[in-house]
Amino acid sequence: MKRLRLIDGVPELRVRKVKESGIKVAHLVVQCGCCANKIEIYPSGLGDQPGLLEIGGVEGSIRNWRAILLPLLKLGSLRRGK
Ligand SMILES: [Zn+2]
Predict the structure, then answer these.
(1) Are 31 and 38 in contact (CB under 8 A)?
(2) CA dihedral in degrees (51, 57, 58, 59; nearest 10)?
């Protein structure tokens, strides 16, 4: 069994790039480091419009995602004292 790499005490997320094929556009699959839970991230959205990002089936503008996620990511690093 492959040894889990820990980052800040939790298993590292597993990220897989999926190349475009047939009807599927290129996207990322981010999987939990300890189980089979995963989300798919489509950088350009399903409609291939620039400036869109689909995370876990929820599509929004990149600006909208940034406003939601950046404060959470900054808060996480503050809590860890970095
Ligand atoms: Zn898990």
Answers:
(1) yes
(2) 20
Q: Which two tokens stand for residue 62?
A: 């990149």
Per-residue confidence of the chain (82 residues) as pLDDT tens digits? 667 899 999 999 999 999 999 888 899 999 999 999 999 999 864 555 668 999 999 999 999 999 999 999 888 666 665 5
pTM of the model: 0.77
Q: What is the rounded CA–CA span in Å between residue 18 and residue 10?
A: 25
Residue 76 C-alpha to ligand 1 middle, in angstroms? 19
Cite the beta strand spans of the chain per DSSP E.
6-7, 10-11, 14-18, 27-31, 38-42, 52-55, 58-61
Domain boundaries, the chain: 6-79
Q: How far is the CA of 79 from the centre of ligand 1 (A)?
A: 22
- Ligand 1 centroid, distance to 75 Cα (angstroms): 22
